[in-house]
DNA sequence: ATATCAATGTCGGAG
DNA sequence: CTCCGACGTTGATAT
């Protein structure tokens, strides 16, 4: 069946398959193929996938996905900007996708097509999402007292020799506080990260407090944290979708 | 059209859509819907996606994907093990997917279906892939001399207070060598990682060498590496697909 | 283009 | 089940 917005075929011949894929690529359509195929990849790694039925998706932006009947991740893929081509070789349909840098090539050897279609997609909306580390950061800058009474932020993304501190501030006694934020349960790696940031402040005369801020913490992480004399503050990332005007650090005096 | 392996419809009515999705879910088929829809998610985060045309995939293992016409990643999804349901509410098709722990819910409000199909998928093959850190490790254990003449591995995944060392060994003079492997271009974070592992060996009498093993290294990482007196050894991850019997460390004497 | 960091990361393996 | 680290991570942002 064919209309203005999409074209769809069942059990097409090789000739039809070739024609429709070619047409879909030329129109920069979203192409969907359900077929029995083999897949080969060579580039950053190398992979091979034997014969089986999979869903193939070629998007207008060059993204190329091959999905098996399990898992969220595609079994093979190419990123946006890749160039797809279709060929017939020895009476078999080959679909290839290449990327230049790094050089990568994905080849799908199609044995038999079950359904084939392409769509001229109308979709202008972007996802609006809340509940990230960034949202926690905003929340703390808006309401520093949720960390503790008297906490004052000084800097955000403060650079150290071991990376960027999420939030640097002072407690009510004037001691420096280094906050490391995680939007989900924090593990030992988060504690190690915090520990590294503190190395730059080892000689600070007023003393420095390291605080891991996350909704929860693993047992091992808690142990390491306490062994290192660091602190944990439980905080859930806020999940409000309305796009609020962001608070900048201009509101705070960067006085360190 | 309907046959034993798949069912496919174009521009179905709500009633047909409901029936086919229900049937596909019951048969644990892979369901593919191209439709104009809205999407809501609530769980580890919260998100909203306005009206637009997207590809919806429901897999037999419970994975649920919504793909826009761009990017490799789905715009919304649910992991394997989630439970999908279809409803009609106020004359509109709703498809929901829930997960228990953590509690997550994805809701798709379908405005209009363009194509709808489900497949009973036959696919037994797993991906065979080569070119990982693991393959480099195997290669080095098989042929230690590629690191340097006289290099002898002692332990793999050797535990320190700062995490696991990829390979620990000795050079021909008996000095300890700590190898940190990366299957791609190494950055400063890799150097910092190596640096941390060495802390446990600061007092070793024979001296310890830290070696970063990777196909290449970033400029900043090279500088930091040299400033710390560490070394770089260029090594490409092998990309051989044949499943070779793995070498275990039983072949080496753990004598440290 | 390169480097760095977060993610509803996902996934696999070990305890 | 939880915890931990790798990934052809991807995607976004700053340099």
From TrEMBL, chains A, B:
Enzyme category, top tier: hydrolase
EC number: 3.1.-.-
A GO molecular function held by the record: single-stranded DNA endodeoxyribonuclease activity
Ranges of residues in domain Endonuclease NucS N-terminal PH-like: 27-126
Record-linked InterPro entries: Endonuclease_NucS, NucS_C, NucS_N, NucS_N_sf, tRNA_endonuc-like_dom_sf
Localization per Swiss-Prot or TrEMBL: Cytoplasm
UniProtKB keywords: Cytoplasm, DNA-binding, Endonuclease, Hydrolase, Nuclease
Domain Endonuclease NucS C-terminal, residue spans: 132-247
GO cellular component annotations of the record: cytoplasm
Pfam families reported in the protein's UniProt record: NucS_C (PF01939), NucS_N (PF21003)
Domain of life the protein comes from: Archaea
Family label: Belongs to the NucS endonuclease family.
Role according to the record: Cleaves both 3' and 5' ssDNA extremities of branched DNA structures.
Protein name: Endonuclease NucS
Top-level taxonomy: Archaea, Methanobacteriati, Methanobacteriota, Methanomada group, Methanobacteria
């Amino acid at each position: 069946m064919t209309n203005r917005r999409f074209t769809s075929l069942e059990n097409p011949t090789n000739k039809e398959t070739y024609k429709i894929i070619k047409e879909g690529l030329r129109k920069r359509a979203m192409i969907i193929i359900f077929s029995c195929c083999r897949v080969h990849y060579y580039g950053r790694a190398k992979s091979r996938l034997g014969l089986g039925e999979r869903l193939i998706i070629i998007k207008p932006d060059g993204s190329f996905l091959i999905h098996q009947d399990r898992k969220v991740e595609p079994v093979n893929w190419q990123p946006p900007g890749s160039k797809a081509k279709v060929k017939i070789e020895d009476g078999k349909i080959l679909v290839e996708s290449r990327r230049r840098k790094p050089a990568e090539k994905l080849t799908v050897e199609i044995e038999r097509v079950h359904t084939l279609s392409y769509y001229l997609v109308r979709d202008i909306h972007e996802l609006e999402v809340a509940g990230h580390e960034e949202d926690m950061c905003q929340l703390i800058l808006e309401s520093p007292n949720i960390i503790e009474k008297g906490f004052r932020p000084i800097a955000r993304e403060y650079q150290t020799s071991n990376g960027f501190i999420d939030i640097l501030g002072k407690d009510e006694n004037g001691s420096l506080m280094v906050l490391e934020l995680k939007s989900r349960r924090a593990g030992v790696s988060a504690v190690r990260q915090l520990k590294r940031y503190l190395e730059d402040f080892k000689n600070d005369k007023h003393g420095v407090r390291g605080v891991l801020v996350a909704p929860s913490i693993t047992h091992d992480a808690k142990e390491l944290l306490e062994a290192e004399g660091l602190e944990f503050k439980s905080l859930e990332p806020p999940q409000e979708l309305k796009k609020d005007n962001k608070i900048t650090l201009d509101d705070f005096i960067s006085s360190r």
